[in-house]
Hints:
This protein has 388 residues and is an all-alpha fold. 65% of the residues lie in helices and 1% in strands. It comes from Pandoraea thiooxydans.
Amino acid sequence: MQSLEALTREAAALGANQMPAASSADEAEVGRIMQICNACRYCEGFCAVFPAMTHRLTFAKNDIHFLANLCHNCGACLHACQYAPPHEFAVNVPQAMARVRVETYTDYAWPAALGALYKRNGLTLALAAATGLALFLSLVALIQGQWASGPLAANFYAIFPHDTLALMFGAVFLFAVVALGIGVRRFWRDQAPGPASGGAAAEAAHDALRLKYLDGGHGQGCNESDDAFTLARRRFHHLTFYGFLSCFAATCVATLYHYLFDWQAPYALTSLPVVLGTLGGIGLVIGPAGLLWLNLRRHPLHGDARQKPMDRGFIALLLLVSISGLALLAWRESAAMGVLLAIHLGAVMALFATLPYGKFAHGVYRGAALLKWSIEKRHPPRLGVGGE
Length: 388
């Protein structure tokens, strides 16, 4: 009887001969690895990638991008794999998927030039944008003669008029939404997933909000720098995501207060916008700080080292936004308020301007991949085997 490795070798070789040509070396590597995994299937219960893989005999470009964005990069399959390095098969699913995911961000980015620029210079571009915008806002305030040397009773609009802020941030936010929307629409069109039912959409939203596939497939968590299971990444991601949502909710509530009820800022520390913003700011300090800590000590086989500037640029902006926002709240009635406001607004504008091209985009594309998987579970593709 042939050994599992011999059978795997034969099946992978047969599949590789039938596989469509990939458009990049990274895509070809994912296709090669998926042929091996499809023959082995030891990790089938770990996450959504492996059951989705079994719906395919060959892996075209759209399949590879789908599976790469379905992967949550938890590392569990690498630690369980008998064909991982230094085996000659050199199967490393997390690293191969990570390299293709960054191609997704750039291939589907709009405008494409900004996606390529951020891919190469993520950390530098993020910090340069935040610094440049903070200096610009400071200069605007000085030119307008609205910079005050004394306290302004926490009145931000004494430095920057409300309509000016609404126009600036509305434009940046609209740009981010349009750019992300165009990119995901292109991705979705290439996937051709079929119609989404309410049940599929609800399941995908549930899995995304819970980060279901960061539990390692058994609820104990994933692997970081060693073989020990941990839920640290899942928890830090939750703090980051829900902290971001809380801050966004604070802005939305404050907007309703201003336009619907004509309640003018500044608001009391116990008001809903301030409470939501404070809780979100705390989450956006703890979550990104934890993710940065994990990023700095993560095993090199778990991800793509070339993406570290992009990853850390996004984390740095989140930390700058949250820390400057909490500092602004704490010293909003002091003479330092103007400087802190310029720093905070510059960081927020830089964050939103770079959202479509950095690490934030992975959440949007991953959500689309989860929805496709939910649809596919209900309507599996035909393999063309045995008369299908």
